[in-house]
């Protein structure tokens, strides 16, 4: 398992997005990128997180950052999720978990005695040079988007 830390080069990704688009790290060189991984569209924690990043999106944009949420859900599910909640951030689909594996967030989890593989909610702040400025593993949703914004501006 990859364990990335501040200063490491951010792994490249090229993912399909809601709205029939795509996003690649290489296309975002020269700007800050907030890349956050979340388990599943339209669940309470994931919705709260996406709404918080959407609410703060103008401030992230003013600070020169692109915000990208990534989950294993297909693009069609992202489209419905974005429409239902008025989300303005980029939602990228990582159905084969290649990006999640590269960033070390596809991990063994357990719930109610059952073990399974899934996304560990994590966020990466990537600088204009393509290196990680900050890493937040095992994210707790409450106040997280504000913490990321503070780190971006700091």
Shape category: globular
Low-confidence stretches: none
Q: Rg from C-alpha positions? A: 14 Å
Number of strands: 9
On the 0-100 scale, what is the average pLDDT?
A: 95
| Distance between the amino and carboxyl termini | 30 Å
Could you spell the SSE succession in H and E letters? EEEHHEHEHEEEEH
Main sheet summary: 5 strands, mixed
Beta strand %: 25-35%
DSSP summary: helix tally: 5
Describe this structure in words.
This protein has 154 residues and is α/β, with parallel strands linked by helices. The chain has 5 helices and 9 strands, in the order E-E-E-H-H-E-H-E-H-E-E-E-E-H. It has helices at 44-55, 57-62, 75-85, 98-102, 144-153; strands spanning 14-17, 21-24, 32-37, 65-71, 90-93, 106-111, 114-119, 122-126, 132-136. Strands 5-4-3-8-9 form a 5-stranded mixed sheet. A two-stranded antiparallel ribbon has the order 1-2. Strands 6-7 form a two-stranded antiparallel sheet. Strand 8 (122-126) and strand 9 (132-136) form a beta hairpin. The protein is globular, with a radius of gyration of 14 Å. The mean pLDDT is 95.
Compact overview of the structure:
The chain has 154 residues and is α/β, with parallel strands linked by helices. It is built from five helices and nine strands; from the N terminus they run E-E-E-H-H-E-H-E-H-E-E-E-E-H.
Describe the secondary structure blueprint for this structure.
Elements: E1 14-17, E2 21-24, E3 32-37, H1 44-55, H2 57-62, E4 65-71, H3 75-85, E5 90-93, H4 98-102, E6 106-111, E7 114-119, E8 122-126, E9 132-136, H5 144-153
Parallel strand pairs: 3-4, 4-5
Antiparallel strand pairs: 1-2, 3-8, 6-7, 8-9
